[in-house]
DNA sequence: GACCTTCTCACCTACGTGTTAAGC
DNA sequence: TCGCTTAACACGTAGGTGAGAAGG
């Protein structure tokens, strides 16, 4: 059985307005030992798959250059040489494998992926990145073909990436403007939004 | 392609010790408008699947008799005639479809299924039951066969049920002993466990 | 009245945030 | 010292409990 390579596959980035608020400031994503979720969350919608065929969807993080970056005087500057690269598998979306009609039904969210700077992770949700290196998320769609009674083939049929979602991995935020945007739009950081509002009120008194 | 009907499939109930605490008292499960999780949670481990074949796993609730039950003087008594039966689809485990090797890797938990007494539900996790009727959970394993470019067949290959997990659906607990067991073993009910302990301490003072 | 259902509530579990101080 | 990382923390989101009063 041959893969149904559909020439009409398209992957659309959701929440593009939000991503474009971060992009011009150079976005940052926290990495921790246990793993930290991304914010904004990467979400896509997909069209053009064969509804009855089976697909697996993966998220990669491509290192976009060969620099270790430094934040100096409010500016990101490329350093001399990068840390040794990390070879790790991609994050496989937790609803994989599934039918084309499933993937096209609703927006696909990568909210469960966790970014970490520690190897030796058992969980399938953690992805290891080098801190202070620049990455670009990439989506790969592969078709799952049942070739015989004893095997399956996973054949890439589409790959795309989103420049708007580029970021530098950090262990603590460097740019205060990035921190402010994270607090403003991430519901889980509402504690700090309320504090800011209270401060404003106290200043007004 | 023919289904790989494996004669060696076996499904084992997990947490059997916990279930057998409830069984002799006649277990009860709450149904609510929004849907209520089961406790204990139904968990199984599966062996004997073909690792490379694809399966879907479903949970049914078989009505085990034709009675509407009543709790009178600390005893469950069968009533005369049951309410009209509800015809609804099964709960499909959220990791479906998936490979045999995936299902056999870890214990499979049905923690997300929610029991309700209201029809007209949009969610795929809610299962409608008749209150005061007796049910027995049943697991069905079906193999997914890609028959052609434009279709899949889902063929049942194994079905089993667990007498230990039988229960009567209720809108409020009838038997205080059942309530006590739920509080004792369900972490989400710890508030009431602490209250009991505090009461005991206050009595001791 | 008796029986069953519904709703609100306090109190938990579980975990996602940036902050801050300490560590290296 | 400086740059970066770690761990504890307060404070949110999100949602799972039975209790108890009210409703039908």
Automatic annotation (TrEMBL), chains A, B:
In Swiss-Prot or TrEMBL terms, this protein is called T-box domain-containing protein
Superkingdom as given in the UniProt entry = Eukaryota
T-box domain mapped to chain residues: 13-194
List locations, semicolon-separated: Nucleus
Q: Which organism is it from?
A: Didymodactylos carnosus
């Amino acid at each position: 059985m041959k893969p149904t390579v559909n020439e009409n596959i398209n992957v659309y980035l959701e929440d593009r307005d939000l991503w474009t608020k971060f992009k011009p400031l150079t976005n940052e994503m926290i990495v921790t030992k246990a793993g930290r979720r991304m914010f904004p969350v990467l979400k896509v919608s997909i069209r053009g798959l064969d509804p009855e065929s089976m697909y697996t969807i993966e998220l990669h993080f491509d290192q976009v250059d060969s620099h270790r970056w430094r934040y100096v005087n409010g500016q990101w500057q490329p350093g001399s040489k990068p840390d040794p690269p990390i070879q790790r598998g991609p994050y496989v979306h937790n609803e994989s494998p599934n039918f084309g009609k499933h993937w096209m039904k609703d927006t696909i969210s990568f909210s469960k992926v966790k970014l970490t700077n520690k190897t030796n992770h058992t969980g399938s949700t953690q992805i290891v990145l080098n801190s202070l290196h620049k990455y670009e998320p990439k989506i790969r769609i592969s078709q799952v073909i049942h070739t015989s009674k004893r095997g399956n083939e996973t054949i890439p049929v589409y790959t795309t990436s989103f420049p708007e979602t580029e970021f530098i991995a950090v262990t603590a935020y460097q740019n205060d403007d990035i921190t402010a945007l994270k607090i403003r739009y991430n519901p889980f950081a509402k504690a700090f939004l309320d504090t800011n509002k209270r401060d404003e009120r106290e200043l007004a008194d």
